[in-house]
Every structure is written in structure tokens, then in C-alpha cells.
Amino acid sequence: xxxxxxxxxxxxxxxxxxxxxxxxxxxxxxxxxxxxxxxxxxxxxxxxxxxxxxxxxxxxxxxxxxxxxxxxxxxxxxxxxxxxxxxxxxxxxxxxxxxxxxxxxxxxxxxxxxxxxxxxxxxxxxxxxxxxxxxxxxxxxxxxxxxxxxxxxxxxxxxxxxxxxxxxxxxxxxxxxxxxxxxxxxxxxxxxxxxxxxxxxxxxxxxxxxxxxxxxxxxxxxxxxxxxxxxxxxxxxxxxxxxxxxxxxxxxxxxxxxxxxxxxxxxxxxxxxxxxxx
Length: 278
Description:
There is one protein chain. The chain is of the alpha+beta class. The protein contains eight helices and twelve strands. It has a seven-stranded antiparallel β-sheet with strand order 1-9-6-11-4-2-3. A five-stranded antiparallel β-sheet has the order 5-10-7-8-12. Helix 5 packs antiparallel against helix 6. The two termini are 27 Å apart.
């Protein structure tokens, strides 16, 4: 099941990786990083487009299109050559930077698009051992030197706890024969996968009480973030984190905030928020 959600599909030679990393870190246009999808993150995650509909690198909200190269990609010949060599049917291609102490909260992608099958390829350019992706109850360190395939219709999140900045090439593409050929021998190394311990009901009630203490001291956002970060520490049923935060606001008597977080669950996960809270 995990291989259907996340897997390595191809190695990248060190010379190619080094050239692409150099381009991502030094190209002048990469000074203008764009923060988008702010509701899905803690802050610290920003992107620039290399292929999109408009050709502008600062147009970063993805959509179905027949993409063209942006002005940024035209300054990155090694990356341009790499993308051409893959021979995929691209939807959108971005550079993504995740700063230290930053999180992409539990979510799923592509829900707003039609039912055409898509995948996302991650090409880590620079990373560290505290930068991980969580999906299916496991934490995976996406090491550079490989192309990783993600099925983002499965619930997932990402974090960079300690730094330095994590840089990934994100390739959203349509499923076709070439992608199937590229991914037919997908694999995962056991050393890259950490199984998260299952979060028990008693443990979650304890975390809720700690969050309530923070909130009653006036630190509501810190209380919400405390609960959101549990996704990276424990294997939990889908959406349980959002149920906990809604319960936090129920306990505080804030019906409006509780409704907002139940709506957040529906927006980010594509669920109706009807599952019981802790």
C-alpha cells in the first residue's frame, strides 16, 4: 500500500543533481519566492514555477493546462535538459523551498481538478535528515539523488524541523505510458521509512488537555499548532487532528472557531467533518 502512495522511481547521477542544485540556489530570478496555499502551511513554504500556463515564474497556483517554459526555466539549462529527458506529459513544474521549523499541514491534493489521473514527482535538490514527508502513518526522508513518486490524493504532510532549507523540484504530470514506464520498478528502502507509533485515545486526550492549557493562557494559535504537529509524530486516523482542534474550541466555548476548523477539515481533506472528535 505504501508503494502506491510514495516510492523511488529512478536514480539521478551526482553530476546532474549538482548542476540542478547549483541552478536552483543561484539563478537571479529565484530571489522572488512566492508564498501560496497559506491555509495549508505554517509559513516557510514557497515556490516558483518552471513550467505553467502563463510563462511567469511567480504564477504558482497549479491548474490543468498545456504548460510552457517560464522565464526562470530558460535561465536553468541543466534543469531544462533534465525535464526534457524525462519525456513526461507535464501539468505544472515548480521549485519549492521549505524553511526550518516549517510545516505543510495534513492535506490531500488534486480534489479541485477533474478525474484525469495525475502524479507528483519530487526531485530533492537539497535536504536534511529532519526534512520529511508523512503519509500512510510513516515518516519518510526523501533523499537527494532520486526521483520520488507521490500520489497526493492520499493524505500527506511535510516538515523541515531543523534546517537548512529544503529545495525540491516538484513535477505534476499526467499519467501516460511514459510515466508508467518510468515508475514500473518503483521501490522503497527500509532505511528511508520510519513507522510512526499509533496515537492512542488516552494519549490524544492528554494532548488536548495540554492544548487547552495553552489556549486558556492566551496562546490559541500555539495550541492549534501543537495539535497540528501531532501528525508528524503519531499514526492517527485521517482527520483526527482537525477533530481535536475543533474539540479544543468546543471546550473553549468558541462555536465559530470550531465551525471554521470543521470546515478546514472538509477543505483540506475532502471530508465532511462528520467523524467523531476526541
